[in-house]
Each structure stands twice: as structure tokens, then as C-alpha cells.
Design a protein that fits this description.
The structure holds two protein chains of two kinds. Chain A is mainly alpha-helical. Chain A has helices at 2-24, 32-39, 44-55, 66-75, 97-116, 120-136, 145-153, 158-178, 182-203, 213-220, 222-233, 239-255, 288-306, and strands at residues 58-62, 259-262, 266-270, 275-279, 282-285. Chain A has one domain. By secondary structure, chain B is an alpha+beta fold. Classes of the chains: A mainly alpha, B alpha+beta.
Chain lengths: 307, 145
């Protein structure tokens, strides 16, 4: 037993010393994967352990990005209202990791919303606010000068604006994932999603509640809040997440009051376009009272994020 | 499983992962992103180092009245990545196994649904070598109809 511990500890120490060689030797003549068997003669037991590590299942929980949230609002034919955005002047108030992460998501959603409604005068301001949040989080290459310039030169081109927003958001999220800052990445997504929900709920005209496309879009978010709750749960060991997770759990309890039932999905392929159509019917039941409760809860959470 | 027995393999695994994770972003942007064609990338980043024989699951809500393109691609050194799409009751909706273009799937929904995507890097169990690892990237594009 003791000998085994010594043997494995020694092997670990050797591997630890070799880490910089393996990970840093990019200019060496032989590729790392070609050297692997020579450098480490793995015995059967080690291979078994490696196999067990490989079996560890990877689970991704994908939330609507701020761009997708804004697109859903646009698609529901809602109007643009600048007064409900988080003012860019607030950016200087955000100095903690939590507030910068949440507001990176919020400002990216505001930027997407403005971009999709041709609000050319404020797009650059919101891009700068998002850049400030990203830089505060240590993500220096999220919003490059090149991206800002491309935006300025194509301020009337919606497609390019969307491309730039998607690229900068991906730069942020990939940086956070690569640096194992998944809790911060989860906060960014939470901020963006809550902002989209906040904008949507604020834009609903209660006198046109029935058959309202925006209300349908809001109800659909019931399908995503469970994913978000699980995403935050996975990172609950971070103090900043704990509070946000509690807020999302409370919001989920309100979404749970909405009934959403679906028929099984049947598929059909459009031979001409090669697009698969997923056919199903969904029945949703929400009362104006539940909607108002939801709208107020979303506003409380969002206002706590932008404080 | 005694924890000390995990140490060497864990370090070995970490060593190769550190460099590879950083390269994964480059692969996702350079090779997978162009597969979205004229669909707008949603901006989300999902990529990971997978080993032959390993599976990954992804959960996402897709919305009615949007056209979507799902692009899933593994690095060249990996065997062709397989993926299957299930509904929330785990009924199979789509598999790329016999698809002409196995890296992309275009779809649209009549009603919003949460779907599960299972990605698998197949493993040749008869091969007398350690399984290969490489980056697998999953990307979504959308456009309004």
C-alpha cells in the first residue's frame, strides 16, 4: 500500500515536472502526441484510469445569447424603447466581478436590441460600455479596436452589426471558458437573458394581452429557465452566484405557474431546401395576473443587477 | 478507487488539455464557424476536447418561426463525429449517421421546444493504440423567416 502511494506520487511528480515541456514546447521538432507513448510508458492500470476520466460526460447548457434574445423581441414585432435600456453612464458604477459580468450580458443585449432597430446613434456607446465590462473582467481581446471600427464603418448594415456582436460575445465567452471561469460566464449569460426578458415584459401592452406574440415569446422562456437554474447550480460554490441562483429559483417558481404542454414532435424534410421541419403543437396557459407577477419579479432582479 | 492512483493520469490528462483548450477556440472560429454559411451565429461558444469513445450532451431551447443551422465538427485527427438530436422525452428526432452533409443540420420548428443534442466521437476498439483526443465544436446559427 505504502509502496503504491510512493510509486504514484513519484510518477505524479515526474509528470508535474514535465508539464511545461508537454504544454509549452510548441517549436520542438516532434509533435506532443507523437512523443506521448515514448515519454510515458503507461501501464494497464494507468490506461484504465485514463479511460475512466474519458468516460466523464461533458454537459453543455446553452442559453439564448443576448443577440438571440434581442432577435426574439424583434421577431415579435415589438417597438424600440430607449428609456428601458441600462444607461451607459452606469458603466462606471460596476467595479465587482459580479456586477461587471452581469452587465456585460446586459449591455450586449442592449447593443443587440439597438442594432436590430437601427439605433445608429447609440450602438457605439453600448459597444464601448460592453467593452469596458469585458476589460474589467480581464478579457482584453473581446472587443478589438478593429471590431469597433468595423461597426462604425457599417453602422447602417444590420447583418454586419450582428456579426460583430456575435464575434465579440464569443470572444468573451470562449476566454472565460478557456480560463475555467465558468461561473463568470454563467453570470454573463444570466445578465443577457434577464435583460432580454426585462425588455420583452416591459414592452407588453396589457390592453393587447391575448394572442400577443411577445407574450408567447416570454412564455417560451419557461423552456430555458430550467437550463439557467442548472447552469448556476453547477457554479454555486462562488458567493456571487449563490445570490443570483436564489433570484433565478424564485423566478422559476413563477414560471412554474404557467402551463405549457406539447404534442410529440414529428419531422418532415423539405426536399427542396433540405430543411427538417419539426412539427408539434404547444398549448400555453398564462393569466394576466401571473404575467404581472412575472414582470414585476423580472424587473426586481434586473434592477438589482444594474444597481 | 484510491485517489492517489488517479494523480499521474490526471496530471497527464491536464497537461495535454491546457494547450489543447486554448487551440480549441481557434479551431471553432476558423473551421466550424464558416459552416454556418448565411445563418447568423448566435454568439455562444461550445467547444471541448473529447477523446475517442467520449460523449457530450447539450441542452438548448429552440424557438418557433426561426430557421436554425446546427454545425458540429471535430478536428481532422478525430474520426467523424456523430450526433443525435432528441426531444425532451428522449425521442430521437435526427441522427447525422446517414446524412449527406454530416456536419450541419438545418431545421425549423412550428413550436418552441427544448432539445438535447448528443455528440459522440466514435472509438475503434480494435485499434491497438491509445484513443486520440481533439477539439469538437458545436455552433448554432439562426435567421428569421
Amino acid at each position: 500500500m505504502t509502496r503504491s502511494i510512493i510509486r504514484y506520487t513519484a510518477l505524479s511528480a515526474v509528470l508535474l515536472l514535465l508539464l511545461p515541456v508537454v504544454t509549452g514546447c510548441r517549436s520542438c521538432g516532434t509533435k506532443p502526441e507523437e512523443r506521448e507513448p515514448d515519454m510515458f510508458e503507461l501501464r494497464e492500470a494507468d490506461k484504465r484510469v485514463l479511460d475512466e476520466i474519458r468516460q466523464a460526460e461533458r454537459i453543455f447548457r446553452s442559453m439564448p445569447s443576448p443577440l438571440e434574445s434581442a432577435m426574439l423581441i424583434r421577431q415579435a414585432e415589438a417597438r424600440f424603447d430607449r428609456s428601458i435600456l441600462n444607461p451607459v453612464e452606469n458603466a462606471s458604477n460596476y467595479t465587482t466581478t459580479r456586477s461587471m459580468a452581469l452587465n456585460l450580458g446586459i449591455y450586449t443585449c442592449n447593443l443587440s436590441y439597438a442594432g436590430l432597430y437601427d439605433q445608429t446613434r447609440i450602438i457605439i456607446d453600448y459597444m464601448e460600455a460592453a467593452k469596458r465590462m469585458a476589460e474589467g473582467l480581464g478579457i482584453m481581446d473581446a472587443v478589438s479596436e478593429e471590431a469597433v471600427q468595423r461597426l462604425e464603418e457599417n453602422i447602417n448594415n444590420k447583418e454586419i452589426i450582428m456579426d460583430v456582436v456575435a464575434e465579440t460575445f464569443m470572444n468573451s465567452s470562449s476566454y472565460l471558458e478557456d480560463n475555467e471561469q465558468t461561473a463568470i460566464a454563467a453570470l454573463v449569460l444570466t445578465g443577457g437573458w434577464i435583460e432580454g426578458l426585462y425588455i420583452a415584459t416591459q414592452l407588453v401592452d396589457m390592453s393587447e394581452f391575448e394572442d400577443n406574440m411577445l407574450v408567447s415569446t416570454i412564455i417560451d422562456q419557461k423552456l430555458s429557465i430550467g437550463i439557467l437554474a442548472e447552469l448556476l447550480d453547477e457554479n454555486r460554490d462562488m458567493a456571487a452566484i449563490e445570490e443570483v441562483a436564489g433570484q433565478i429559483d424564485a423566478l422559476k417558481a413563477i414560471f412554474d405557474k404557467i402551463t405549457l404542454t406539447s404534442t410529440p414532435i414529428s419531422t418532415e424534410v423539405d426536399r427542396e431546401s433540405n430543411v427538417t421541419i419539426l412539427r408539434s403543437e404547444v398549448q400555453a396557459d398564462i393569466t394576466p395576473e401571473i404575467f404581472i407577477e412575472l414582470r414585476e419579479a423580472v424587473a426586481d432582479i434586473r434592477n438589482s443587477f444594474i444597481k | 478507487m484510491k485517489i492517489y492512483r488517479l494523480l499521474p493520469a490526471l496530471l497527464l490528462f491536464t497537461a495535454f488539455s491546457i494547450n489543447a483548450e486554448a487551440q480549441c477556440k481557434g479551431f471553432a472560429k476558423r473551421v466550424c464557424l464558416p459552416l454556418l454559411g448565411n445563418y447568423t451565429h448566435d454568439g455562444n461558444y461550445h467547444a471541448a476536447i473529447l477523446v475517442e469513445g467520449e460523449e457530450a450532451e447539450l441542452y438548448k431551447t429552440f424557438y418557433a418561426n426561426m430557421d436554425y443551422r446546427l454545425a458540429i465538427l471535430g478536428e481532422e485527427r478525430l474520426p467523424g463525429v456523430r450526433f443525435r438530436v432528441y426531444d425532451s422525452s428522449r425521442n430521437l428526432i435526427y441522427s447525422n449517421e446517414d446524412a449527406e452533409e454530416p456536419s450541419v443540420w438545418d431545421f425549423r420548428l412550428e413550436a418552441s421546444q427544448q432539445l438535447m443534442i448528443v455528440v459522440e466521437v466514435p472509438r475503434d476498439s480494435s485499434a491497438d493504440r491509445l484513443p486520440t483526443s481533439g477539439c469538437v465544436s458545436i455552433m448554432f446559427g439562426f435567421r428569421v423567416r
